[in-house]
């Protein structure tokens, strides 16, 4: 997936499900770091890291979190934090999830990650036999990020500050078809 930070185009490659599952196990202030900048090409990763380390540059680690979670959310097909929680559920219940996926004719290891997120959401919703259980599930899964910002600052109500329009993420038509 191509995205821009201050006019510079960066590329996040398609990542296999085990990479996503591993990254989502890290604490909230670091889980996205394993993917962006962690899975970008070396030059892009170094550029982003140098920007957040430069005290004269307004692009700080909190803004990088905003960019990363928005880009990763586009890949996941939902809010990053909700997708992370669903992927954590996949990892925690792998044997059951994978067994059900076989019954459905679905191979999560070869599917785009957003399909795995959607499958886990469908499985969890299916287990809600009452509206109150579904409402509780939605509030748990779709809650904002936990804990402070990566800088240590408190999060603002609503999950974080806006990115200020300095970047633009765009999905290429091939992305959804290719993962």
Give a verbal description of the structure.
The chain is mostly helical and 179 residues long. The chain has one domain. The chain contains 9 helices and 3 strands, in the order E-E-H-H-H-H-H-H-H-H-E-H. The protein has helices at 17-24, 28-31, 42-53, 61-76, 80-92, 94-104, 113-126, 131-141, 173-178; strands spanning 2-5, 8-11, 167-170. Strand 1 (2-5) and strand 2 (8-11) form a beta hairpin. The protein is globular.
How would you write the strand order of the largest sheet? 2-1-3
Query: SSE string, helix = H, strand = E?
Result: EEHHHHHHHHEH
What is the tally of helical segments? 9
Give the rounded overall mean pLDDT: 87
Number of domains: 1
Structural class: mainly alpha
Which SSEs are present, and which pair or pack?
Blueprint: E1 2-5, E2 8-11, H1 17-24, H2 28-31, H3 42-53, H4 61-76, H5 80-92, H6 94-104, H7 113-126, H8 131-141, E3 167-170, H9 173-178
Primary descriptors:
179 residues; 9 helices
Short description:
This protein is mostly helical. It is built from 9 helices and 3 strands; from the N terminus they run ββααααααααβα. The C terminus is likely disordered.
């Amino acid at each position: 997936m191509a995205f821009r930070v201050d006019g510079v185009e960066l590329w996040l490659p398609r990542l296999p499900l085990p990479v996503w599952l591993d990254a989502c196990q890290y604490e909230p202030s670091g889980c996205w770091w394993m993917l962006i900048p962690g899975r970008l090409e070396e030059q892009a990763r170094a550029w982003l890291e140098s920007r957040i380390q430069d005290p004269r540059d307004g692009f700080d680690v909190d803004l990088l979190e905003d960019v990363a979670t928005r880009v990763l959310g586009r890949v996941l097909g939902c809010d990053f934090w909700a997708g992370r929680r669903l992927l954590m559920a996949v990892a925690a219940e792998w044997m059951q999830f994978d067994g059900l996926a076989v019954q459905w004719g679905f191979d999560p290891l070869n599917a785009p990650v957003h399909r795995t997120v959607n499958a886990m959401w469908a499985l969890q919703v299916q287990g809600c036999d009452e509206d109150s259980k579904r409402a509780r599930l939605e509030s748990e899964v779709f809650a904002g990020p936990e804990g402070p910002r990566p800088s240590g600052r408190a999060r603002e109500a609503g999950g974080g500050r806006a990115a200020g329009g300095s970047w633009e993420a765009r999905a290429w038509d091939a992305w959804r078809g290719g993962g």
